[in-house]
Write a structure and sequence with these properties.
With about 280 residues, this protein is an alpha+beta fold. Helix content is about 25%, strand content about 25%.
């Protein structure tokens, strides 16, 4: 069992995140990267733009990460023993591209209430200040949701380019991870990330989110997988885990789930971005 320690629980309560947490080896991370890049090679558009969501539905190795016991133990420490998987995202920053993530709060547009959920950010490659790791505004999770400007700026990897104003970036904490480590962060913490200035890709696989079974989707529809425990609420449709790489039925399922997500992310917006 790899439940969070009392120090880690205190860090999460006080700061809104806990990092780093060891999950698997660098060798395993390389194997996962290879599978991601095989999908990109065989199906060039499948993981691009809004296709980056729910890649665990077509990749057995990403499915394995999503249901990893060490991750679920840590998540259970925060949200309880009944855990659902409510979507995943690949955040890939290629070298020499200008992709960044503006400072935002996950809970702003995602529609999951109450906030008994957590985001796991798993490093498939090393993630550091040079290649654009996440940065957290420590303690910002204790306040209400903030106003976000919708910038729709081209290099922004977020749907609407949603941006919190006046973030003291000099005071933010970089979450430095080696491949195979992860961080966990609270739904309302303000966070973002800078450009990749290295000569290699920076790949993060994000389970967004692990939700308690008491959590509803209030602005749309999500299907979920039962990761641990029991679901006595049945607020969401259940979907099965993938058995094989790039399975046609799973590709269709991924598209269905991503269409649901687009409706959630752009609810109330007059404009639509590329993600």
């Amino acid at each position: 069992m790899t439940y969070l320690s009392s120090n880690q629980l205190k860090q999460y309560r006080d700061e809104g995140f806990v990092s780093p947490i060891n999950i698997f080896s660098k060798e395993k991370a390389k194997e996962i990267r290879n599978e991601i890049e095989l999908i990109e090679k065989e199906m060039p558009e499948e993981l691009e733009k809004s296709g980056r969501y729910n890649a665990h539905l077509i990749s057995p190795l990403l499915d394995e990460v999503t249901h990893n016991t060490k991750i679920l133990d840590a998540v259970e420490s925060l949200i309880g023993k009944d855990i659902l998987v409510c979507g995943t995202t690949l955040f890939i920053k290629n070298p020499n591209e200008k992709g960044f993530v503006s400072y935002h709060q996950d809970a702003k547009y995602i529609g999951l209430e109450p906030h008994n959920w957590v985001t796991a950010w798993v490093a498939i490659t090393d993630s550091n200040e040079h290649n654009g790791c996440m940065r957290m505004w420590s303690g910002s999770h204790k306040n209400n949701l903030k106003e976000h400007d919708q910038k729709f700026n081209e290099e922004n990897l977020l749907t609407r380019g949603q941006t919190v104003k006046n973030v003291p970036t000099d005071e933010t904490t970089p979450l430095i991870l080696t491949a195979g480590q992860m961080s966990l962060h609270h739904p309302t913490i303000v966070h973002g990330s800078d450009l990749n200035q290295s000569d290699d890709r920076r790949i993060g696989f994000v389970i967004q989110s692990y939700i308690g079974t008491n959590v509803k989707q209030v602005i749309g529809k999500n299907s979920v997988q039962l990761a641990r425990g029991k679901d006595n609420y049945n607020f969401h449709e259940k979907i099965k885990r993938t058995k094989s790489l790039m399975n046609k039925e799973n590709i269709k399922l991924k598209k269905q789930e991503n269409d649901y997500l687009q409706e959630i992310f752009y609810k109330g917006s007059l404009k639509k971005g590329t993600y």
